[in-house]
Amino acid sequence: MSTGVEPGDRQDKSVIAVRGLSKTYASGFKALKNIDLDVRRGEIFALLGPNGAGKTTLISIVCGIVRPGEGSVRVNGCDIVRDYRKTRSMIGLVPQELTVDAFVSPWTTASLSRSMFGKRADPAYIEKVLKDLSLWDKRDDQIIALSGGMKRRVMIAKALAHEPDILFLDEPTAGVDVELRREMWKLVHQLRETGVTIILTTHYIEEAEEMADRVGVISHGELILVEDKNELMRKLGKKRLTLHLQEPMERIPAGLENYGLELTEDGGKLVYTYDTRAERTGITALLADLNRAGMRLSDLETRQSSLEEIFVDLIREER
Fold first, then answer.
1. Domains of the chain
2. Which value, to the nearest 10 degrees, does the dihedral of the CA atoms of residues 162, 94, 217, 23 take?
3. Distance CA 159, CA 187 (A)
4. Residue 210 — very low, low, confident or very high, per pLDDT cuts 50/70/90?
5. CB count in 10 Å sphere of residue 18
6. Which of 123, 168, 175, 287 is deepest in the core (most CB within 10 A)?
7. Helix%, strand%, coil% for the chain, nearest 5
8. Residue 249: half-sphere exposure toward Cβ, Cα within 13 Å
């Protein structure tokens, strides 16, 4: 399987470089096991994994919230332990939980966050952030009066207020309806266009499929795969060939069992699943056997497996 470190990668391409990172908590639970990962400058990187896989621990270590155990993490070439203040100032974090004062305004929230990082006041920049996030008209409203989607945007404004190079989004659309989720996707792409590197964790596989350039899968504290999203789907994806029959059937004829065909409930379609990586898909032989069996087709269609199906298969293999 692929790791996050490719031979020949140049260090200056990596905005985050994780080497041999492990973390064991006082309880004895080993949350991370020898993680190696490079996050490239300017990319959108999605970290996928089930609950308890180690996603939050990894993010918390990079952001300086949790101390690492073994190994090292460098942000823009700076060690996160020795150069804590410097590396932390390069990072914006949007946690899953709302961590803002409900009775202050978006303007005040962003301005205070900027000052906490030692940045000189810059009203013009705060104005730009709030406008970019469609919060300008709500800049003086109390956060408690805002919608759930607007509160998420305030969290992002707070994280961006000190002009970080890197933005972590932990479950950015959890509890948000589909329309707002798509608005957030658009916003993330806009942020990437300004040069911000974005790392997100998500339970919504479609979110990673929509937004990410690369995908990392973590399970039981181990990074089991890091791959370009499109390449991952090409290499590990399967295709389904659906054969529409001119005449419905009650059962699959003898002699076709080896193809692993599925017959739909109405008997009108046969579904054949094949591996895109195989030298031979078996489709030519299948069509020939169907013809010999006297079965006539009215149509056929193919569908590539989704990132969600690939993810589920990967996790199942690890268990």
1. 11-233 (3.40.50.300), 237-305 (3.30.70)
2. 80
3. 14
4. confident
5. 25
6. 168
7. 35, 30, 35
8. 18
**Spatial separation of the C-alpha atoms in residues 319 and 298, rounded to whole Å:** 41
Separation in Å, CA 71 to CA 66, 82, 149, 223, 225: 14, 13, 38, 14, 19
Helical (H) or strand (E) element with 231: helix 229-236
Q: What angle do CA 197, 185, 312 make, to 5 degrees?
A: 90
End-to-end CA distance of the chain, in Å? 16
Tokens standing for residue 79: 């060690």
Q: Which residues lie closer than 8 Å to 291 by C-beta, 6 or more apart? A: none
- pLDDT of residue 148 exceeding 50: yes
Cβ 142 vs Cβ 104: under 8 Å: yes
Neighbour tally for 158: CB within 10 Å: 23
Is a pLDDT exceeding 50 seen at residue 6?
Answer: no
- 243: tokens are 């054969």
Lowest mean pLDDT segment, chosen from 62-71, 123-132, 220-229: 220-229
Residue with tokens 């060690």: 79
* pLDDT tens digit sequence for 46-56: 998 877 889 98
- 196-218: buried (b, 16+ CB within 10 Å) or exposed (e) per residue? bbbbbbbebbebbbbbbebbbbb
Q: Which two tokens stand for residue 38?
A: 């490079």
What is the rounded distance in angstroms from the CA atom of residue 113 to the CA atom of residue 99?
12
Pick from 236, 316, 238: nearest CA to 281: 238
When pLDDT is cut at 50, 70 and 90, the band that residue 3 belongs to is very low
Pairing of strands 44-48, 30-40: unpaired
Which tokens is 249 given?
Answer: 């059937």
- At 319, the pLDDT band (50, 70, 90 cuts) reads low
Round to whole Å and give the CA distance between 34 and 297: 53
